Amino acid sequence: MAEITTSVPRDNAGTDLRPNPLFLVGRIIGKTLLPVLVTLFGLAALTFFIGRMLPIDPVVAILGDNATQEAYDNMARSLGMDKPLWYQFGIYLKGILSLDFGQALTTGKPVIEDIARVFPATIELATLSIIIGTGLGIPAGVLGAMYRNSWIDHVIRFTGLIGYSAPNFWLGLMGLVIFYATLGWIGGPGRIDFIYEFDIEPITGFYLVDTAITGKWDVFRNAFGHIILPASILGFGALAYISRMTRSFMMEQLGQEYIITARVKGLSWGRTVWVHAFRNVAVQVVTVVALSYAFLLEGAVLTETVFAWPGFGRYLTNALLVGDMNAVVGCSLLVGIIFVTLNLFCDVLYRVVDPRTR
Fold it and tell me: Where are the transmembrane segments (predicted)?
C-alpha cells in the first residue's frame, strides 16, 4: 500500500515555512486582547477627564461648604489635586491596576468594597430576569416567525410592544399596588424582610443560593417573594427585545431554500424550524441574550429605586446625586468592563460555533 504523505512548504534552503504554533497563538491573543485593552484605557481616560470637568468639587463634597482655606488646601494636596491633570491621571491608572478606585464619599469605604457589597444583589436580580426573558422570549420569537401574521404572531408582537413602551418604574409601582398592597402575594420593597436579615449565612452573596445551600427554605421563600416581581418586570422588557430579534432572525432563515428542501423531503414543520433553522441563528440569539444581560446589570436603576433594591444601580444613583465621583467613575468602569467582556465572549463563541469566521 502506498504511503500517504503531506507536503510541507519549504524555501530553497529546505527551511520549514510553516508558522510557529506559538506565534499563531500569540497573534490570536494579541488581536483579541489589544482592542480590549485599548477600549478599557479609553474608557478610563474618558471617565476620568469627564469627572474632572464636572462642576463638582470633591474637596467641598468631603469637607462641606464651611471648611477653612487651610483645611481645603490640605485635603486637595492629599487627593493629589495640586498636581497637573496628566499626573493625576497617571496616579488614577496606577490605582486602577491595583483595583483601587479611591474612597466613596457616601460611605467612607473603598469603592471596590462598596461595589463588591452591592453587586451580588444586582447579579441575582439580573440573572433571574434574563432567565425569564430568555425562557419566554426565544419560544415567542420562533412561534411568531413560524405563524407569521397569524393571531399568535399578533399577540406576541403586541406583548412585545407593551414591553418596549411601558416604563419600568410605572410597572413596578402598579405591581406593588396590586400584588403586594392589595393581594399580598409577594414581598414588599427590599431584598428580604428585616426579621430574616440575620438568618442568612453569607456564602456567595446571592440570597437565593445561600438559603438553598443552608437549607433555610422559609428564608428562601421570603427572598423569592421579594425578587420575583422586580425580576419579572425587568424580564418582561428583555422578553420584548429577545422575542423581536429572534423573530427577525428566524424569518430570514425560513425564507431560505434549504427550508423548502427540508419540507419537500418530508420533515415536519416543527422539526424543520427548531432543528435546522434555529441552529443557524443560535449564535446570533446568544449575542442578543448576552447584550440584554449586560443592559440588565447596569440599567436596572429605576427598578432598583422603586423596589428599594440594595444593588449596583441604586448605589450609582446615590453617588451621582451627592457628586461622589470616585464611586461614579468606578461604577462606569465596571459597566464598561461588563460590556467589553460579554462582547469578547460573543466573538469567541462565533469563532467556536461558526467555522467560517475563523
Answer: 28-50, 125-147, 168-188, 223-242, 281-307, 327-350
Which neighbouring-strand residues pair with 16? 10
Collapse the DSSP code of 253 into the 3-class scheme (helix H, G, I; strand E, B; otherwise coil) and give the result: helix
First to last CA, the chain: 36
Proportion of the chain in helix, strand, coil states, percent, rounded to 5:
75, 0, 25
What's the pTM value of the predicted model, to 2 decimals? Answer: 0.79
Cβ count near 347 (within 10 Å): 14
In the Cβ-directed half-sphere of 167, how many Cα atoms lie within 13 Å?
A: 7
**What is the third-level CATH fold of 111-357?**
MetI-like fold (1.10.3720)
Segments making up each domain of the chain, as ranges: 40-97, 111-357
Element (H, E) at 325: helix 325-353
How does DSSP classify residue 103?
A: B
Handedness of CA 58, 63, 67, 69 (dihedral sign): negative
Q: How many Cα atoms are found within 13 Å in the side-chain-facing hemisphere of 88?
A: 16
Where does the pLDDT of residue 256 fall: very low under 50, low under 70, confident under 90, or very high at 90 and above?
Answer: confident
Q: Is residue 233 classed exposed, middle or buried when 0-12, 13-18 and 19+ CB atoms within 10 A define those classes?
A: buried
CA torsion sign for 201, 204, 206, 209 is negative
What pLDDT score does 139 carry?
Answer: 92
DSSP letter for 2, please.
Answer: P
Length of the chain: 358
Q: Running DSSP on this structure, what letter comes out for residue 16?
A: B
Q: How high is the pLDDT of residue 131?
A: 93
Question: Are the C-beta atoms of residues 32 and 346 closer than 8 Å to each other?
Answer: no
